[in-house]
Amino acid sequence: MGPILVQSWSSMGPILVHSSSSLGPVLVQSWSSLGPVLVHSWSSLGP
User: Fold this and answer.
1) pTM of this prediction?
2) pLDDT by residue (tens digit) across 9-23?
3) Rounded to whole angstroms, how far apart are CA atoms 11 and 5?
4) Distance between CA atoms of 41 and 36, rounded to whole angstroms?
5) How far apart are CA 26 and CA 39, in angstroms?
């Protein structure tokens, strides 16, 4: 399975979620409407 790209948009701002395979890390990039706040969340487990 290749990497899965999921783009989800909420009323608070765009939320971009990059998910690799279940054996790879998960990168979560979220932006708030108040400013370009970038949050990186890594996990050893997949979605």
Assistant:
1) 0.15
2) 333 344 444 433 333
3) 20
4) 16
5) 12
Which of 7, 1, 3 is CA-nearest to residue 28? 7
Residue 42: per-residue pLDDT: 39
**Cα–Cα dist 15/37, whole Å:** 11
**Sign (positive/negative) of CA torsion 41, 10, 7, 47?**
positive
Q: Give 18's strand partners.
A: 5, 27
Nearest residue to 10 via CA among 27, 33, 26: 33
Q: Using CB atoms within 10 A of its CB, is residue 41 exposed (0-12), middle (13-18) or buried (19+)? A: exposed
